[in-house]
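Researcher: Go.
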Amino acid sequence: MKWITRERARVDRIACPWLISRFVDPKPEFRFVPAPEVLAAAKREAAIPYDVPNVELGHHGPQCSFDAFIARYELSDPELATLAGIVRGADTDDRGLTPESAGLYAAATGFQAISRDDFDNMARQFPMYDALYSYCRAQAPAAPPPSRVLFVCLHGAAKSVVGAAHFRRLAAARGLAIGAVAAGTEPDQELAPAAVKGLAGDGLAPMAARPRPVTLYDLDTATRVISFGCEVAPARGQRVEQWEVPAVSDGYTAARDRIVANVERLVTELAGGR
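Model: Structure:
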């Protein structure tokens, strides 16, 4: 994917490319342009803009763009949440937010001053963020990573969304502490109206407001992968199931019933038959 932001990066505009490269996109392409040109260049180049005003992946209230990435791509890693606080303090006026924020701001300011350009700055700062992430892991209480099932369909807009919603419902009813996320290999811009309407009739709602791509974090952390006809290669050899389900657009009830039958079996299996 292509990612674009303002040139002369310091904190957030280096932290976000690090996050993208390590947890989101296996082959990211980064662009840095003058601030007034970001949105036009993003439209022209079909790139995703970030850390500029009035975009999804930007500042919202007290939170910075790094926080927006974590929310958008459902990165539930507890160490990333700790790192997000450090970045937020360094990137905003709240330098006292964490003990480390002022130091990150100082180091980022120095790297900005000695780097030839933004790409050189990324190359210099990425090892610092790798080190900060390891530091955050050492600070966090020892706990197993959150378990979740990854549901994948082509557009990430219908079958995967229905599957994830019903999995969360049935898993919660069984007391199973496993979450679920939906993603697409070629995500649409919007969720399928038939899926949203059908889920509402079931008393459920999609977790995300619109489809998102399968991420590196998804492939690394999924307990199980459910695919609706897509090729998916988990990072740790996790089991992938292929489910054949009719199109949601051809009738929500038929698709939902097939999905729920499979989800019930999966939940029983993951619950150890209880």
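Model: The two ends are 43 Å apart (CA to CA).
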